[in-house]
Specification:
Elements lengths: L6 E12 L2 E12 L3 E5 L6 H9 L6 E6 L2 E2 L5 H7 L1 E3 L12 H6 L10 H6 L2 H20 L15 H13 L5 E5 L7 H17 L3 E5 L3 H7 L2 E6 L2 E6 L1 H5 L2 H8 L2
């Protein structure tokens, strides 16, 4: 797959096996900059595994990853995060023993901007950085309507509010690529519509691209420009919403015909 100048992320023939099972097979993807796209497919199709491979949570068995023109195939997860790739999870992964404010600020440690001795001696650089982190965390709490929950524990929040907090935390490091793993899971129809509006606003107001793994087709078809369809780890279709809706292979994969 040849990269284009406007590609933010390129996956070239990526594969992953678990024992004798092929979770992702020869999967390629081009993610243009500034675009909302989706990876869809039946349960067990390899969607979340693909996210794990992109973020470095799991190593690929083969294939190549290029992000912002740089080969990150061998880069560990924390390096990919610092480079500008963040994500949410299908099952919410907040720190239950930290309050909402600290759940946000914990990710700022990836971009400290000071050395170990600065922290040990509590230098002015450390204090300035901590003030900046506090201001950024409070600003994003305000953006997501979470200010009044700053001192709450995540377990005290309604499920939909926990989802918003996880999204806010993923945005705090100012990523270039945001991966959303089933952001609509467990939300009611009203919350789904609010989520769609929120994702579009986030993409519009920030310089970033978004890839979504999602089962809610209303969400995918209304806000995504490019859709990749996986079935048993293999890509069976790629196109815009109209093309995917009319694709016979996609219909068979979902309906089992």
């Amino acid at each position: 797959m040849s990269a284009h100048q406007d590609d933010l992320l390129v996956l070239e023939s990526v594969s992953k096996r678990f024992g004798g099972v092929s979770a992702v097979a020869d999967f390629s993807l081009r993610q243009p900059d500034g675009v909302i796209s989706a990876i869809i497919g039946p349960n067990g199709a390899g969607k979340t595994t693909t996210f794990n491979l992109i973020t470095g949570v799991q190593p690929a068995d083969s294939g190549r990853f290029v992000f912002l023109g740089r080969d990150i195939t061998r880069s560990p997860a924390h390096v990919r995060t610092k480079a500008g790739i963040t994500r949410t999870f299908q099952n919410i992964r907040l720190f239950p023993n930290l309050d909402v404010m600290d759940n946000l600020k914990v990710v700022s440690g990836l971009h400290r901007g000071y050395a170990f001795w600065d922290e040990a001696l509590r230098t002015g650089r450390v204090k300035r950085r901590e003030r900046e982190m506090d201001e950024r965390a409070r600003a994003i709490l305000a953006e997501f309507g979470l200010e009044r929950f700053a001192s709450w524990r995540p377990t005290q929040l309604p499920y939909g509010t926990q989802r918003r907090l996880e999204l806010a935390r993923a945005l705090l490091p100012e990523p270039r690529l945001l991966l959303l793993d089933e952001p609509g899971a467990g939300l009611n129809p009203k919350e789904i519509r609010e989520l769609m509006d929120g994702i579009v606003r986030i993409q519009r107001d920030r310089t970033l691209s978004i890839i979504i793994v999602e089962h809610h087709m209303e969400l995918v078809m209304n806000i995504c420009s490019i859709i990749h369809v996986l079935d048993f780890g293999r890509k069976i279709a790629e196109g815009n919403p109209a093309e995917i809706t009319c694709n016979e292979q996609v219909q068979k994969a979902y309906l089992g015909e």
